[in-house]
Amino acid sequence: MVENTSEKSWEQLDQLLNKYRGTKGSVIPVLQQAQEIFGYLPKDVLIKISKEINVPISQVYGVVTFYAQFHLEPRGKNIIRSCQGTACHVRGAKAVLNAIREKLGLKEGQATTPDLQFTLETVACIGACGLAPCLMVNDDTHGRLTPEAVRPMIDKYRNQ
Amino acid sequence: MTIKSLEDLRKIKAESQLQTKARKSNDTQIIIGMGTCGIAAGAREVMTAVLEELAKRNLNNVSVLQTGCIGMCQKEPLLDVVRPGEDRVTYGPVSPSDVPRIIAEHLVNGNIVEDLVVAKIPNKE
Amino acid sequence: MALVRAHILICTGTGCTASGAKDVLAKFDEELKAKKLRDEVSLVETGCHGFCEGGPLVIIYPEGTFYTRVKPADVAEIVEEHILKGRTVSRLLFKEPLTAEKVPNYDEIAFYKKQHRLVLKNCGHINPDSIEEYIGADGYEGLAKAILTMTPEQVVEEMKKTGLRGRGGGGFPTGMKWMFCAKSPGPKKYVICNADEGDPGAFMDRSLLEGDPHAILEGMAICAYAIGSDEGYIYCRAEYPLAIKRLKKAIAQAEEAGLLGQNILGTNFSFTLHIKEGAGAFVCGEETALMASIEGRRGMPRPRPPFPAVKGLWDKPSNINNVETFANVPYIFRVGAEEYAKLGTEKSKGTKVFALTGKINNTGLAEVPMGITMREIIFDIGGGIIGGKKFKAVQIGGPSGGCIPEQLLDTPIDYDSLIAAGAMMGSGGLVVMDEDTCMVDVAKFFLNFTQSESCGKCTPCREGTKRMLEMLTAITEGKGQDGDIEKLEKLAKSIKAGALCALGQTAPNPILSTLRYFRNEYEAHIYDKKCPAGVCTALIGYKITDKCVGCGLCKKVCPVEAISGEPKGKHTIDPDKCIKCGACMEKCPFKAIIRG
Fold it and tell me: Would you tell me which CATH number, out of the four given (3.40.30.10, 3.40.50.1370, 3.30.565.10, 3.40.50.170), belongs to the domain A78-158?
């Protein structure tokens, strides 16, 4: 991901807005791609989007806070989505989650490591129930996990 | 590729099935001995010749299988032809130049190429 | 070009990729090249076979040999032995969990033998990135038949004759839905595919989208022709990146081939398709919420009527079906409604894909005719319970569904028998639970899910799920009181009656159904302050019995130094220090530590 406020990011945002100007129902795809550019959705970005696609900022903010995918705070370089779906739940996903927390040194209520290397979140189901318990790191899915298996996995991503 | 009619669709279907035909087992089979001895005696070249000949004749319903050493190493390369309801015939030693004859005579016309036969295994059915 | 004599099919669905299928694929390519076999052996990436447990999966044709859990280190041996010498590598064959018998052939495995794969037919057997292979497998024939030989009215009638009911949850007859939308006046109509598979424990839609994307496109195009629409959307959850990638590619291929876009198959019929990525909200699986989300608003449901068939996306008549429903359509139009309706029960036709997960040996996808019993699915196809433990219940239909206990295992499954049993078909997720699962904890788990996914628009759902969750939490923490069960039942019924959309209306189902079949577990938590399954940590403790020989292993493994004792003497656990992690019990070689 790019540095948050670099000029290049703003240029990319301009291009994005040009592409979608006049398309109906574009709020969500614009926000998704803007988040891809900036890593999260800073206030200034939301204001610009609201003005350019002509949707009130209240509505944009409503959409951002409604969907789990959007983030108003900076996020880690690697996103870990630990699945807590039914199949994972009955096969010990809690222990795996706790092991990740411990490994990353995250306190209760904290999602991102101070060095911005990792963000840990839970999701309801990533559809890999056959390999429960499972998780995603960025776009990679990992399955058949144990607390022992996740520790070296995190090291691998840290060193990438 | 633009499909403008049912005929176009059927044509592409037939072409595609030719490419994926090996994904089903056929009753008619050519089995080549690919043990160490077979390969040393030239079974690879025989295999290549078989695939080329089948392609040339557009024979879609023949599975090409390979098998290990069956203990008749002096007769390698060995090639078996299996046709449904008929005896399994083992040919050997087979050279690539024999392959078109075996396919044309035995596989297509049903006449065993007697001068190359090593053994016949009676059909059990 | 020489003919290809063998095909190596490697599953690169999400499950197998997670197990390392891409490395296996690369290694095969390398080995085949090294042995100069690359021209005569084709290497094919396929979608999901629905048997993720055994992944990475490799199937070699023409023999149809089925290799499971293949690692890159195994590849050289497979090429050398199987491809070159024709000898099966038996150590990599699938082993039946119940008989430990090795089965070489794909079709002979009990997991597949009892299945009836119509919808999943192509998954794992064709390359999903190739439109030619889809056409080779009879693809787009249904569409051609529909638009070249039938009128839209005939298509709708044919659909009604099949008796197909929506596979996404409610089970509404698909033909009726199409008819309502077809009859709705207006020049502009939309076809929408609901691919926001959110039920935890269900992944059949993901497998279909990844393994056979063209089938969904074909089904949608037939629907568009029937209702008079020229534009459609696939709303796919962003958690399925591979599915989105394959859909995009499939749409581009179909457009190029003239099977989507303008003047399809040279006729006047045109249909363009877009993909919308979901943004992570379970409630968007509800049709009105989903349409709000496509329009770029918060995904909140609205009251019906007006139904989407009258006033849907951007206020235009819209028809919305889920992935599995659309995937049935091409087959129907290829073989005809009559043939299709031969499968299944009187009121539930065709097949249903179930996702088998939880404490079961063969996790994966099972497509079976309606009317099969749950026992056949779990024990014959699923291979029974892991570790030979005792079956307790199976949860069906996700957070909206209910559980089915042992005594109902022999009931034939269809939409109506499940509702009678207090569950529902839902999307078809089956989570199997054994004696170690606490049913109160399961109910709490689902409530926690629906509560956090409630959109907050209507009070019964927003407040009601919260209060029920509080009560369940108290019960699992040993703070349950006399009268709690009755309160839960009353509240559950009010929410069912009062909530705006299906999410709220069905949220109490897991509680009601666990109460119906496992009331004694609730009572044990409330009155005896015990969790019979030993799951709720506040209600369990650990004791060391006289079987202890003083080996000291438990003392070593205890993370909080709660265990004391001399070597070769009996050890004891200090209940004040114990955090009930259970590590000592797992470690004890003499089974001297018990819960209690």
Answer: 3.40.30.10
